[in-house]
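debug: dumping io for the single-chain case to check the tokenizer round-trip. Nothing else runs in this session.
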Amino acid sequence: MNIREAGAALRAKQVSSVELTTECLRQIDRHNARVNAFLTVTAQAALDAARAADAELAAGTDRGPLHGIPIAHKDLFDTAGVRTTYGSKIFTDHIPEADADVVSILKQAGAVSLGKLGLHEFAYGITSSNPHFGPVRNPWDTERIPGGSSGGSGVATAMGMCFMATGTDTGGSIRIPASFCGVSGLKPTFGKISTAGCRALSESLDHMGPLARTVGDVAASYEALTGRGCSLGLPHGLRLGIPQNFFFDHSLPEVTAAVQRAAQFSGCEIVPITIDAAEDLVDLALTIIFAEAADQMGDLWDRRSEFGADVLARFEQGRAQDPLLYLRAQRHRVAASRRFMKVFEQCDVLLTPASPTPAPKIGDNLLQLNGVDYDLRLATTRVARPINLLGIPALSLPGGLTAEKLPIGLQLLGRHHEEETLLQVGAQMEQGIGPLTPVWE
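debug: decoded output
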């Protein structure tokens, strides 16, 4: 049952929010010990909120598409009275006094929060292998990573532990977990959704957005978060650009084939495109995140012995970086972004892989692509990272399975503030590709 189906059933009194919530809690009890998606489960508070939602709906109060729908939050968002760790040992017992804006908006929308989801420490990594709370594990193969940093969000939505989960994306941290876990995720236009009350990693690259099982569920979640309705009707007269450089340079053949197959279901005119400045944007984004992330850690630097080894190394690299490099990167990002954005003179939407590969194994540091070894973090984020620098919307959705039964992710890119166009094209592709059959059911 998807969000819109559940919402219709709630309003027709065919099911209650308490029943939906109870089923999600059952899925958490059944699976969480194996995959470690939830760090904190707020079962009683969720059932209380579900009862309140049922009473409101029965009285004729309708707060929108997420009213009575069970959701969960990445543990980077502050939740009043509920433990919020940011994935850090330092904040193991941290209880915020106020909600993040995203949490508050979803409460007002009538969503039922089930608790807090695991992540890479301080959201600064791609594996969600957290040294303090244990690795989050991919439901398709528990020896593999779910992606990061919103790993728990990808796993929880994939396994039916919640209908939607909040995520953050600084260099692919919504889109890559969605890709590796076989769900959908939206990184909206920069600034479209408030970051207040969410611990920052890189203030000029951070984006907030939803992960959910289907494109339609993502659209419903985006509507609740922004107040902007989304029509998922058939797109007409759109041009779908397929890049001829950069985005497929290191992709595995199965990934490339999945993208090409998905294009045929888009309902768009397919246009070959050459991308300018993408490689430059990757380098600029890395320079910016190193500097801004190191600056965010200034107040905690005297406790760096409590950081995990991988994030400590990246914070140290940022602190050692020449500050002038950051200033130059911010200056050059404008020109490089303008060069890239010229592509939308030739097409309306771009289709690329969300990642060049399906989920790697837990503990791997290198990723072999077409016989060549690459740094895992840099390789898996390569096609996602430049999009944060541009600030344009990006949608990840499943493109099928590999021969090993691992999900392949697609990435749709559009102009600023054209999320609805991406969701329309994505919904059309999703219909043609068909649903994935989970291996754990």
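debug: round-trip ok. The mean pLDDT is 96.
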